[in-house]
Amino acid sequence: MRSIALGMLLLTYGFLQAADPNPIEKSLAIQRAVAEAKTFLAARQPADAVQSLESVLDHINGDADFLALLRQAYSEELKKEKLKRIPEPKRLADLESKLAILNKADTPPQPEAKPNPKIEDVPSPKIEEIASPPPAKELPLPTPANARASELLQQACQLFIQAQKDSKQYREAATLFAEAHALAPEFSKDQLAAWSYCRIKIAAETWNQSRRDASATNTAVREIESALELVPDHNELQNAGRKLIADVGGKPRSPVPKSAVASAGGKWTSLESDNFRARFQGSPEPIRELLTQAEEARKTIFTRWSTPSASAWQPKCDLVIHENAKEFATDTQQPESATGHAFIKISEQRIVERRIDLRNDDRTMTADTLPRELTYIILADLFPDRDPPRWAAIGMAVLATSTEAERCTRTLERCYRDGELHSIEAFLELKGPPQADGVTAYYVESASLVEHLVKRKDAKTFRIFLMDSQRYGLEKALDRQYGYASVKDLDQDWRRANLTTARGQTP
Q1: How many helical (H) and strand (E) elements, i.e. helices and strands, does the chain have?
Q2: Is the overall model pTM greater than 0.85, yes or no?
Q3: How far apart are CA 505 and CA 507, in angstroms?
Q4: Cβ-proximal residues to 355 (8 Å cutoff; 6+ apart), any chain
Q5: What strands lie across the sheet with 350-359, from one edge to the other?
Q6: What contacts 105, CB < 8 A, 6 or more positions away?
Q7: Could you report the per-residue pLDDT of 289-310, keeping only the tens digit for each?
Q8: pLDDT tens per residue across span 467-504
């Protein structure tokens, strides 16, 4: 039986622990380990792939895809070990033993049953305004002339009342509330409470009918949290929602900052995609396109440096769209000249908040600002244990852009002629821009060095190089991945490839 074999394998590694980590933490850890392992296997480093996978072996609960990848890593390391001039007998025996255990594992263990969330205990919100829906023209909409929005909201209110006797109506009511809100986001408090309750009830019932695995739990938690954001001051629903999250085995994330909503006097609304939640004012149509572009950029960035992300973000990344530079600066405490700002909050080795602030008046938002700031967010997934060096993060972010990357290339020679560039050895020792007037040169040199190393092999190798630098040190990592004997060799190669003749001197 696979369950018995896996138990033996876990005991072999000594990974059994008394405390059972949160399902979301498990999912994130597995996702990172699998991404690292695939990268290492592509680079023909199976021993490192094995190390990444074994670090989360106690979390996988018999996942067939994970075990197949682990079996591949063991097999490739075993082949590599046998090809050595002097193989290590102990390691050969260890790998053969682990492969034998995996090959015997044929029946996956069933996930442990969890109690049903008691939706009956969730009190229906006290609704007065929609108990007897008024005529459409009297509904509190910001644009009463919008006949379609008024009609949808009235239908949703009627279905919500009917759902008190026929729970099947909650799903249709929730759909109509969402359509009305997209057209006219100014709902009354009672209407928001009704919509929130519909979504919470549907999320709980969907989870009841699922396999109740980590994926289903993540989906339920995301939906309940999103529903609760509609009613931040409704104590009954807030308490009921948090209880449901605990019942399904989830863990609430930290509240999304309310500064943007407060600063706009409650005129903000939101739209969501699989991995993003956009907060904005005005028409929803441009935001739908922005969410599509954000999803595409996320996939592109993950694929470039590692592998496509296997699961949706939990929590989602908030995209807060400010109307202009002044509002952006007020809410983010960043200079008005900035076009974007990325923020990550980590608690107990888990990402609990992702946020990107953008400006609606930024003409380069989708071409430059969004992919640049999104790269900073994704780096937290690509480097879960330790942040990459500042120069590497900047260079990777710049390479995600269009016009910024070209501008850095054009500015490099000017910085060289003006004596603003450092030797690579001195540059790598810097923790960041040395002073205010050195910011441009630091960004330009960061982008140039990252681009140089990526061109020498590829983007995935560059990420492995950064990980090797954390494990083995800079010079050993340069030798392992690029064949440079020293940082000086890298400096000479970089100058020869990137710096053209200036002031009559050769680089």
Answers
A1: 21, 5
A2: no
A3: 6
A4: 256, 257, 317, 318, 320, 342, 343, 344
A5: 269-272, 276-280, 317-322, 350-359, 340-347
A6: 1, 2, 5, 6, 9, 62, 67
A7: 999 999 999 999 999 998 887 6
A8: 999 888 999 999 999 999 999 999 999 999 998 644 44
